[in-house]
Design goal:
97 residues; two-stranded parallel sheet; 4 strands; two-stranded antiparallel sheet; 4 helices; 38% helix
Length: 97
């Protein structure tokens, strides 16, 4: 579990942020995904067959996307939050303005 994901959901959720964690079924068991879902404060998607990860060309784990609803849904940031959580949070803040 990434503690910054929990913090971001708590801090920015009231402003419209919704974190959705996509768990790749090829890499994780359903039981582990269910346990993590119960311990988190955000939505989880268990990606059986890897359809989501294939559709968005995920090349590393964990990959994060900041998506805004302004002018329709669009990705405003993509990266690996554990490598640069500060850049991720800055993208969240910019998207929520």
């Amino acid at each position: 579990m990434q503690p910054h994901l929990v913090r971001w959901q708590q801090q920015y959720g009231p402003q419209g942020l919704q974190i959705v964690y996509v768990d790749d079924a090829r890499r994780d068991s359903l039981a582990n995904a269910q346990r993590m879902t119960q311990q988190s404060n955000f939505a989880w998607y268990y990606d059986v067959g890897g359809a989501w990860n294939t559709a968005v060309s995920v090349r590393a784990y964990p990959t994060a996307y900041v998506v805004t609803q302004a002018s329709g849904y669009r990705v405003v940031w993509q990266g690996i939050p554990v490598f640069d959580p500060r850049a991720t949070e800055q993208a969240i803040q910019a998207a929520l303005r």
